[in-house]
Specification:
Elements: E1 4-8, H1 12-23, E2 27-31, H2 35-43, E3 47-48, H3 52-58, E4 61-64, H4 69-80, E5 88-91, H5 97-109, E6 113-116, E7 119-120, H6 123-127, E8 132-135, H7 139-150, E9 155-158, H8 164-192, H9 197-204, H10 212-223, H11 233-249, H12 255-269, H13 280-291
Helix pairs in contact: 4-5, 8-10, 8-11, 8-12, 8-13, 11-12, 12-13
Length: 292
């Protein structure tokens, strides 16, 4: 496979992936609407394109890592309107199934092949190549991209028909939402019990009660420092809305997930939208103090 790839969206996730691919010998052509991000990634030897159309011209495989359905639709329109021959376009973002289907249809009509490949992992994990790619769509195209995935993720899987990648991501994020709040509650319990919080992190994390979210977010809760954010509360609220909609569509009640939603809503109300989701610790701490 030609080791040239285009990446549209050079934020926390796209930027980390770009740097890792450059380190692994890829020619990365990047584009972002934010000039500062372009300038930063240019310093990391990413070739910055002047537009999505220019990127599409030069990259046989394109990955999109974008923050909103509107941005994804706009980029799909630009790729579709570029006039280029068939490209493999790998959509990495967390979107509703309806948005993913719309993305695929727009590209297919222009002769391109879209894959639905959301990622499991945070921006911090992306820096360490500690991601899982939930790939779905055309199996031959996924097979061609496995080498690409291996250079920025620790694991990837072909999950079958287009959209199954997103379905798997919704299941994973359902657990993340619960584990993050459960971690905050456990750290408050430990604090009330008079335990050394750093010792709690060291001992509980590797044990049966630990989780990836505990290992990532409990140290932030100990320090009560939630920047730089590995996942902003404001972005996470959007993702949770997608999961709730998905669960409703498939007719599955999710009572534990539902119980976490007011916690994240309160984090937004407290002005923590730009902070890491570990800041739910502050929500529970405030609630406990208020109720004492």
């Amino acid at each position: 496979m030609d080791k040239t790839v285009g990446i549209v969206g050079l934020g926390i996730m796209g930027g980390a992936i770009s740097r890792n691919l450059v380190e692994r010998g890829w020619r990365v052509i990047g584009f972002d609407i934010d000039p500062a991000r372009n300038a930063e990634l240019a310093q990391a030897k990413v070739t910055i394109a002047g537009s999505v159309a220019e990127l599409t011209r030069d990259a046989p495989v394109i990955m999109t890592s974008l923050a909103s359905p509107a941005a994804v639709e706009r980029v799909a329109q630009e790729i579709a309107g570029s006039g280029q021959a068939s490209r493999i376009v790998i959509e990495l973002s967390t979107l509703s199934l309806a948005d993913k289907v719309r993305f695929e249809a727009m590209l297919r009509q222009a002769g391109h092949l879209a894959l639905d490949c959301p990622l499991s992992g945070t921006g911090a994990q992306a820096k360490l190549r500690d991601l899982v790619v939930y790939a779905s769509g055309d199996s031959e195209a996924i097979r061609k991209c496995m080498g690409l995935f291996a250079d920025f993720a620790k694991q990837s899987a072909d999950l079958g028909r287009y959209g199954n990648g997103s379905r798997m991501k919704f299941v994973a994020n359902h657990l993340v939402a619960i584990n993050n709040v459960a971690t905050a509650e456990a750290m408050l319990l430990a604090e009330r019990a008079g335990l050394d919080p750093r010792m709690v992190v060291d001992v509980v994390g590797p044990g049966a009660g630990g989780s990836r979210m505990f290992q990532l977010r409990a140290p932030m809760m100990v320090e009560r420092v939630y920047e730089p954010a590995t996942m902003k509360v404001s972005v996470w609220k959007k993702d949770m809305g997608i999961i709730a909609e998905f669960a409703d569509e498939v007719g599955c009640e999710t009572p534990l997930f539902a119980m976490t939603q007011p916690v994240y809503a309160e984090a937004m109300a407290m002005g923590l939208g730009e902070q890491d989701t570990a800041s739910v610790f502050e929500v529970l701490k405030k609630t406990i103090v208020k109720n004492r």
